[in-house]
C-alpha cells in the first residue's frame, strides 16, 4: 500500500480577517490548509507535518473577487483613460480593436490580466470575453489555466462585428462553440467554471435575450448581463418592471447584472427579491458616463453589490481601487442627501468592512461560489491574500480592515494562494510566464493599437 501524504500549510501568528461571522477577526491566529482546503482557523493549531508560513506583521484575509472584468484588454491598457462609453469606447473598442484580435492576442491579454489579478491580491475573477472564433476562446481559457487564477470564463458576443452583435441584434450566442469550449477545457477543471456574457434586451431583440438566458440555464452557467448603463433602454417594457423588459420574468440567483445605473428602485427591488446579484464597477462608471453606481439602490433593496474592474484598457485592475471608489462615492451621495435636508453628517452608513465584503464574499455569491470561497472558513478552498503591516506606508495598523481598504497596495501584498498553492510569494509572482511571455505581450499591444489607427 502506498501512503499518500497530502500537502499541508499553516499560516501562523497573523491578524486573521476571516469575514466569517462565526469566526470573526482574530489576533495572532493560524490558518491550517491541507490539499487546497482550509481545515481550521484559530489559535495554536497543530502544525505537525505542515510547511510554516510566518504571518507575524501580516493581515490574512480571503482573496479578492473581481465580479466583472474584460481581461483581454490588458495589453491595450492606457488608451481609454479619456474615453466615454457611448462615444469612443463603442466606436474604438467594440467597433474596431476587438475585431483585430488574433487568438494569441486573446491569450496574452488574458494571461497578463490574470497575472495582474494575482499580483494585486485577487484570486477569482469573472472574465467577460469577446472571442472571434473557437480558437480565440480556447486560447483565452488557456491563459486562465496557465496563470493559475480561479475564474469564470464568460463567453460573450464575438468582437468582430459590432453591428451584428450589438444594438438590436437578432443573432444568438454560438451554442455549439460554447459547448466545445466547456467540454474541451472547462469541464473537470477545479479552478474554472463557465459563464455566458449576455447583451440583454438593451442590445438585442427580446427573443434573442430570452434565448441566450435560456441557453445559460441549460449550460448551468452564470448569466452576466450588461444592462441599465448610460441611456441604454430595453427594447420593450414590462408594465411593472420596465427596466428588465423581456427577461423580467426570468430573473434568478444565476443572473448577475453589470452596471444597472439607471434602473428604478422598483426594478432593483424586484431583482433583489428574485435573488439577482449586481456588479458595480465604480471607477469606470464614473469616468465613462454610465451613471451613478447602483450601490445605494441595492442597499435600500436589502442586497449588497459586488465590485468589479470592468474595462482594464483605461484603469488599473487593482480591486483596492474599486473598494475605495465604490465606498467613498456612496458615502458622498449619502452625505449630500443628509446635508440637503439641513442636517449635519454625524455617521456613515457604508463601512470599510462593507466594502471589503463586496470585494470578497459578495463577489463570491455573485459568481455562485459562496460555498467555496469568499471567507476563511473551514471546508472552503484556500484562496488567501496576505498583506504586510510593517511597511512605512501601512504601519502602525490600528485597524486591519482600514489598512486593507485605505493604506495597502500591491507592494504590500506579500503572499497570494489559490487553492492552497502559492501564486505570489515574498512579493513576487512565481509564474515563469511573467518573464517568458512579456515581450510577446508588449508586441501584441503595440500591434493592436497601430492596426486600429486610433489617434493617440
UniProtKB/TrEMBL annotation:
SUPFAM superfamilies: Composite domain of metallo-dependent hydrolases (SSF51338), Metallo-dependent hydrolases (SSF51556). Pfam families: Amidohydro_1 (PF01979). Residues 59-421 form the Amidohydrolase-related domain. InterPro entries: Amidohydro-rel, Metal-dep_hydrolase_composite, Metal_Hydrolase, MTA/SAH_deaminase. The keyword Hydrolase applies. Keywords: Hydrolase. One of its GO terms (molecular function) is hydrolase activity, acting on carbon-nitrogen (but not peptide) bonds. This is TRZ/ATZ family hydrolase. It comes from Halocalculus aciditolerans.
Amino acid at each position: 500500500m502506498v501512503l499518500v501524504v497530502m500537502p499541508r500549510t499553516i499560516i501562523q501568528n497573523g491578524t486573521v480577517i476571516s469575514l466569517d461571522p462565526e469566526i470573526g477577526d482574530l489576533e495572532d491566529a493560524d490558518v491550517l490548509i491541507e490539499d487546497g482546503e482550509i481545515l481550521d482557523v484559530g489559535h495554536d493549531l497543530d502544525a505537525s507535518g505542515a510547511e510554516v508560513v510566518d504571518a507575524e506583521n501580516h493581515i490574512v484575509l480571503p482573496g479578492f473577487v473581481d465580479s466583472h472584468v474584460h481581461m483581454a484588454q490588458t495589453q491595450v491598457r492606457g488608451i481609454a483613460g479619456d474615453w466615454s462609453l457611448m462615444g469612443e469606447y463603442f466606436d474604438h473598442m467594440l467597433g474596431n480593436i476587438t475585431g483585430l484580435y488574433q487568438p494569441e492576442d486573446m491569450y496574452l491579454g488574458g494571461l497578463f490580466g490574470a497575472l495582474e489579478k494575482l499580483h494585486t491580491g485577487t484570486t477569482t475573477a469573472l472574465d467577460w470575453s469577446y472571442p472571434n472564433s473557437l480558437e480565440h476562446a480556447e486560447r483565452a481559457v488557456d491563459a486562465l489555466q496557465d496563470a493559475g487564477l480561479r475564474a469564470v470564463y464568460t463567453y460573450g458576443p464575438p468582437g468582430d462585428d459590432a453591428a451584428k452583435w450589438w444594438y438590436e441584434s437578432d443573432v444568438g450566442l454560438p451554442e455549439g462553440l460554447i459547448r466545445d469550449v466547456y467540454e474541451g477545457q472547462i469541464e473537470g477543471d477545479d479552478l474554472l467554471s463557465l459563464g455566458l456574457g449576455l447583451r440583454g434586451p438593451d442590445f438585442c431583440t427580446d427573443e434573442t435575450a430570452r434565448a441566450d438566458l435560456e441557453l445559460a440555464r441549460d449550460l448551468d452557467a452564470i448569466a452576466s448581463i450588461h444592462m441599465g448603463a448610460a441611456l441604454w433602454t430595453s427594447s420593450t417594457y414590462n408594465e411593472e418592471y420596465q427596466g428588465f423588459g423581456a427577461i423580467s420574468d426570468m430573473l434568478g440567483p444565476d443572473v448577475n447584472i453589470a452596471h444597472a445605473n439607471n434602473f428604478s428602485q422598483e426594478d432593483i427591488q424586484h431583482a433583489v427579491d428574485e435573488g439577482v446579484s449586481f456588479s458595480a464597477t465604480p471607477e469606470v462608471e464614473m469616468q465613462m458616463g454610465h451613471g451613478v453606481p447602483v450601490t445605494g439602490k441595492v442597499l435600500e433593496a436589502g442586497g449588497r453589490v459586488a465590485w468589479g474592474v470592468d474595462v482594464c484598457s483605461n484603469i488599473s485592475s487593482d480591486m483596492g481601487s474599486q473598494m475605495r471608489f465604490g465606498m467613498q462615492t456612496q458615502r458622498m451621495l449619502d452625505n449630500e442627501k443628509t446635508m440637503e435636508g439641513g442636517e449635519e453628517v454625524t455617521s456613515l452608513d457604508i463601512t470599510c468592512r462593507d466594502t471589503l465584503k463586496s470585494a470578497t464574499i459578495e463577489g463570491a455569491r455573485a459568481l455562485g461560489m459562496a460555498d467555496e470561497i469568499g471567507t476563511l472558513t473551514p471546508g472552503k478552498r484556500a484562496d488567501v491574500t496576505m498583506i504586510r503591516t510593517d511597511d512605512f506606508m501601512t504601519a502602525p495598523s490600528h485597524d486591519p480592515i482600514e489598512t486593507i481598504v485605505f493604506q495597502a497596495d500591491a507592494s504590500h501584498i506579500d503572499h497570494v494562494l489559490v487553492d492552497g498553492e502559492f501564486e505570489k510569494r515574498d512579493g513576487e509572482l512565481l509564474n515563469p510566464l511573467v518573464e517568458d511571455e512579456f515581450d510577446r505581450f508588449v508586441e501584441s499591444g503595440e500591434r493592436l493599437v497601430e492596426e486600429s489607427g486610433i489617434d493617440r
